[in-house]
Amino acid sequence: MTTPxxxxxxxxxxxxxxxxxxxxxDAVARPVRRPDELAEVDGLVIPGGESTTMSKLAALFGMLxxxxxxxxxxxxxxxxxxxxxxxxxKILDPRSGQETLGGIDMIVRRNAFGRQNESFEAAVEVTDVxxxxxxxxxxxxxxxxxxxxxxxxxxEHDGHIVAVRQANAxxxxxxxxxxxxxxxxxxxxxxxxxxG
Length: 196
Known about the structure:
Layout: E1 5-9, H1 15-24, E2 28-32, H2 35-38, E3 43-46, H3 51-60, H4 64-72, E4 77-80, H5 82-87, E5 88-91, E6 104-109, E7 120-124, E8 134-138, E9 143-147, E10 152-157, E11 160-166, E12 169-172, H6 183-195
């Protein structure tokens, strides 16, 4: 597989920025809203946004079970911010009715780094991403409280886990799609190629 087709879950959140970053990382990128569109991609990005809204829209659009099935079957998936929450097996402080897709054996805390007005940028050293630290944009960002034995911690910030990988699933607390640095998306595109 030379040029993988990677979808961006387009129910809510910063979809356009991920489409641009994936294209810059040599993938064919397309929005995914329905189960038939999900069936046509080699991998999927779950963008930042609002995790409770995203889970409710996924249920409304009939996407929860198809997403869970594809992830459980090993489809490569990358979640940023709210996407990290969606990939968690457990949320420490879920909102009423909030569901996750699972896929990474981790417990996450929503809005752990603070509210909207406490958003910040920081240089983050990410294992498997060469060329020095990436600029992490943290917007109402979660962090990972704990991980299971199969999860590789790729980055920490201020003593908190902010990037993880388990098999074909990758997740970051921060938004690399907002910086113009496409190395984290490049890592994911390589994961999709390897899986294919």
